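Dear H.,

Thanks for agreeing to be a second pair of eyes. The structure we're designing against is below in token form, covering all 321 positions.
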């Protein structure tokens, strides 16, 4: 039996899948199965995966008869998984895993009896060739976390929780645990719910994974619905009141960034949606000191009277800083 089931959801990623597959083939931990679930690609991705399956017998392919989406493809792959731990990868993310990645996460999971093992990601700007850590855990916080290697996720300080990269990909899960999750949600609400349900969360805060990002990766018109789902996850798990201050800061940052980086054909509509989202927001219910630390605090205070041209000017000034 393999130790890890790596589930790769693919959809028209012919130009990206090589990097992911070669990263997996070169892993120190070789006792794995690689389950590729293709979501009706029409660019040659499926043919390329079939070549990999001929090259390495650990590769299994499931071709979907009709499109279902990335996370649902992960669920399909999970139903065929035979290992006690599972890892999800999005074939449309240009990912490079260091050779020790799987072994480090597996050893962490076994040592801590984890439901989930979290690790951060370094993002590489594909145009500027610069590296960014978009979700930054302060050094002192990381040092304190290292002293407590495993926690109940619900007890994690909300400010730390909302500093995490809330993507379901590039995390290691106990297979029997993650099978019970709702795979119909958007990515970030899915992983937030995982964190709310996990009894044992551990983490490896070294950088073991790199993701190349392109401008279109920031185009997320669905982000408003994502945050509505995330708020519902917090309410369903009975922690909204204790987490709302950190949550609103994460929401303000994410929505502003998403609108600022949106593709031009979506940006104005997203800006109007941003204004509508916060039109009736009662900021007095939140921790004022926490809000004032927010980079966009003053902009949000003036959002109701801000024009689209004003927004573009502010966004351009921030980009140049």
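And this is the sequence the design step returned. I haven't edited it by hand at all.
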């Amino acid at each position: 039996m393999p130790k890890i089931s790596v589930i790769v959801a693919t959809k028209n990623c012919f130009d990206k899948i090589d990097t992911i597959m070669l990263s997996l083939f070169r892993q120190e931990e070789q006792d794995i199965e690689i389950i590729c679930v293709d979501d009706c690609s029409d660019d040659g991705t499926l043919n390329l995966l079939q070549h990999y399956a001929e090259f390495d017998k650990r590769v299994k392919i499931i071709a979907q008869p009709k499109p279902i989406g990335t996370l649902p493809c992960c669920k399909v792959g999970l139903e065929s998984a035979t290992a006690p731990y599972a890892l999800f990868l999005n074939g449309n993310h240009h990912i490079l895993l260091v050779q020790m990645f799987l072994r480090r996460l597996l050893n962490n999971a076994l040592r801590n009896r984890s439901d989930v093992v979290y690790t951060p990601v370094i993002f590489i700007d594909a145009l500027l060739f610069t590296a960014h850590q978009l979700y930054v855990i302060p050094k002192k916080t990381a040092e304190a976390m290292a002293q407590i290697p495993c926690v109940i996720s619900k007890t994690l300080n909300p400010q730390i929780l909302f500093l995490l990269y809330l993507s379901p990909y590039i995390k290691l899960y106990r297979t029997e645990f993650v099978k019970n999750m709702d795979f119909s949600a958007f990515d970030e609400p899915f992983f937030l719910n995982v964190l709310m349900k996990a009894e044992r969360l551990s983490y490896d805060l070294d950088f073991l994974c790199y993701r190349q990002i392109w401008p279109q990766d920031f185009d997320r018109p669905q982000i408003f619905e994502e945050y509505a789902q995330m708020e519902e996850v917090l309410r369903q798990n009975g922690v909204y009141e204790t987490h709302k201050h950190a949550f609103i800061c994460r929401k303000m940052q994410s929505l502003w960034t998403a609108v600022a980086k949106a593709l031009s054909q979506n940006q104005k509509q997203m800006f109007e949606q941003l204004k509508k989202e916060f039109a009736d927001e009662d900021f007095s219910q939140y921790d004022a000191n926490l809000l004032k630390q927010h980079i966009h605090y003053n902009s949000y205070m003036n959002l109701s009277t801000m024009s689209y041209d004003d927004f573009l000017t502010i966004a351009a000034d921030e980009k140049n800083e």
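Two observations from my side: The two ends are 52 Å apart (CA to CA). The chain has two domains: 4-213, 221-320.

Warmly,
E.
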